[in-house]
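[Discussion] Sanity-checking designs against the backbone

I'm trying to build intuition for which residues belong where. Below is a structure token string of 535 positions. I'd appreciate it if someone posts a full sequence so I can compare it with mine line by line.
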């Protein structure tokens, strides 16, 4: 995968590349980050980049202690991962723990060194998912400037038990050594890289600046400029097809292409696929791209194709795959029609990661869901300039290059559209209901000026039925589930605390305007453990 260079062995070529990377960044020190398969690896790289610290991602299955010595990092980090220390732990050379280089293990990374020094790691009384309070127990440079009690995000089943060899730095309700230290080894059971861990950035700054002594942060440079240059070089005078959804990611990519293709003679074609879209998506595409000279927009109505492909399918994974098939077919036809040499997609790092892709290391990555725009083999090369970005950084790039704020602030469009908001079979009727309830919900969010206070909101047609009494008559009606989340980049999310009055109003409108609805409920789960979308 482009843009994500992985350290696999200390070959002369790899060491030269590292030297060059540091020269360009005007840095002399760096962190070696062993990717153990966590959803959050890329966030660690981003957090460190924000601190001006370069993190080189390392493959735990091939990098041995000798390779680490040759690369000579100022510090080592081990991320979390879906495995446990007892079951399918990622391969890792334990001698690396004994090199004396400052090391910070996060979640699974912490459990791995704790087990290595002889501490007990076993399932705790309760699994901890979500935000918990960390209480600091001892002064340590890792927690300089962090209050004695602060919120942290945990996602683990195993815990580390107290041991003579471990200094207890902090604890949560169910995790007696939620933060621990053994000589040059530090460990935290929680995730400092997510914004839910309020002082996470401070902890990483402490580790890099004070513990690893990295004092030469590299200057930030314009990411957008670099991406435009890269696209220009790749595209030459070719034609590019882009699937537009009216959401922020594809809009940002379209604007990057606008700049990269200016004066090249190549054509930029935008395709909007109608069929499983939300009520106002098409209007956004028409408004912002329809009448522009630099892009030709075609609206492809694929309603029937989607319905045919989805008929009889009830499992979410099957529906996602069926949707992806139609998506590919429509785009392939346009690639041929317009003689396009490239197809551009707004795929984010989050999408790749949740589809079980990402940094190509040997650690197992959990496939959470098959994203609509990942893993499709197109007949022409794909351009994915945002594949190393998450939502908030992609929006920042958009701001840099003048994408209208109205587009940037739209709630993310889930690639499979309303398919992921319908339980059971997707039919013309369930699509109509999903579209109507979404329209009502979003309309009310905008009217109440709540739209921009939440990160994303959705309305789901569930398979549950609820008894309804309508006058003298009784019957069954479908249960609609509403959700809304607060998030920064979609990696984690909290259920948004919407006012009851507001929910009441939405529920009444839905019941009055959609005769099939029996009841409306509101989802209060966070991510993790739930995902943002229902399916
Ligand atoms: P989840 O549900 O995985 O969603 O917590 C994280 C974010 O991704 C969106 N989403 C998708 N986006 N293709 C996409 O481009 C997909 O297949 C897909 N599935 C979920 C979701 O709406 C949320 O913003």
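Best answer:
Here's mine. Compare freely.
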């Amino acid at each position: 995968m482009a843009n994500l260079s992985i350290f696999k062995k200390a070959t002369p070529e790899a060491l030269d590349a590292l030297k060059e990377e540091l020269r360009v960044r005007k840095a002399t020190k760096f962190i070696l980050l062993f990717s153990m398969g966590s959803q959050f690896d890329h966030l660690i790289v981003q957090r460190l980049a924000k601190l001006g610290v370069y993190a080189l991602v390392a493959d735990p299955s091939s990098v041995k202690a000798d390779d680490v010595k040759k690369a000579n990092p100022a510090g080592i980090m081990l991320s979390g991962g879906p495995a446990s220390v007892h079951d399918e732990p990622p391969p890792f050379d334990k001698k690396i723990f004994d090199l004396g280089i400052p090391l910070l293990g996060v979640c699974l990374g912490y459990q791995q060194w704790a087990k290595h020094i002889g501490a007990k790691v076993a399932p705790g009384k309760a699994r901890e998912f979500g935000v918990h309070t960390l209480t600091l127990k001892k002064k340590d440079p890792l927690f300089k400037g962090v209050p004695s009690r602060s919120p942290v995000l945990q996602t683990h089943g195993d815990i580390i038990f107290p041991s003579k060899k471990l200094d207890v730095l902090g604890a949560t309700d169910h995790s007696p050594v939620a933060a621990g230290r053994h000589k040059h080894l530090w460990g935290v059971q929680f995730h400092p890289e997510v914004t839910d861990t309020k002082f996470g950035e401070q902890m990483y700054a402490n580790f890099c600046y004070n513990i690893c002594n990295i004092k030469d942060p590299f200057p930030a440079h314009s990411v957008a400029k670099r991406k435009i240059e890269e696209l220009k070089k790749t595209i030459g005078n070719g034609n590019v097809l882009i699937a537009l959804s009216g959401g922020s990611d594809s809009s940002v990519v379209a604007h990057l292409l606008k700049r990269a293709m200016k004066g090249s003679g190549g054509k930029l074609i935008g395709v909007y696929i109608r069929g499983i879209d939300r009520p106002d998506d098409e209007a956004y595409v028409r408004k912002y791209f329809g009448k522009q000279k630099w892009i030709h927009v075609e609206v492809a109505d694929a309603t029937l194709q989607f319905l045919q492909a989805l008929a009889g399918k009830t499992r979410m994974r099957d529906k996602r795959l069926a949707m992806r098939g139609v998506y590919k077919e429509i785009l392939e036809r346009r690639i041929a029609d317009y003689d396009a040499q490239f197809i551009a997609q707004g795929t984010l790092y989050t999408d790749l990661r949740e589809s079980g892709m990402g940094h190509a290391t040997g650690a197992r990555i959990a496939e959470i869901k098959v994203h609509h725009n990942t893993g499709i083999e197109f007949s022409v090369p794909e351009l994915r300039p945002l594949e190393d970005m998450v939502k908030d950084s992609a929006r920042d790039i958009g701001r840099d290059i003048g994408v209208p704020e109205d587009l940037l602030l739209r709630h993310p469009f889930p690639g499979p559209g309303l398919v992921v908001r319908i339980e059971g079979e997707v039919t013309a009727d369930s699509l109509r209901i999903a579209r109507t309830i979404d329209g009502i919900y979003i309309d009310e969010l905008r009217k109440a000026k709540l739209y921009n206070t939440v990160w994303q909101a959705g309305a789901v047609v569930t398979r549950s039925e609820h008894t309804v009494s309508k006058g003298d008559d009784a019957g069954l009606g479908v249960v609609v589930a509403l959700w809304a989340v607060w998030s920064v980049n979609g990696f984690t999310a909290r259920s948004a605390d919407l006012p009851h009055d507001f929910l009441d109003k939405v529920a009444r409108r839905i019941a009055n305007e959609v005769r099939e609805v029996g009841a409306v409920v509101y989802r209060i789960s966070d991510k993790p453990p739930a995902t943002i979308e229902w399916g």
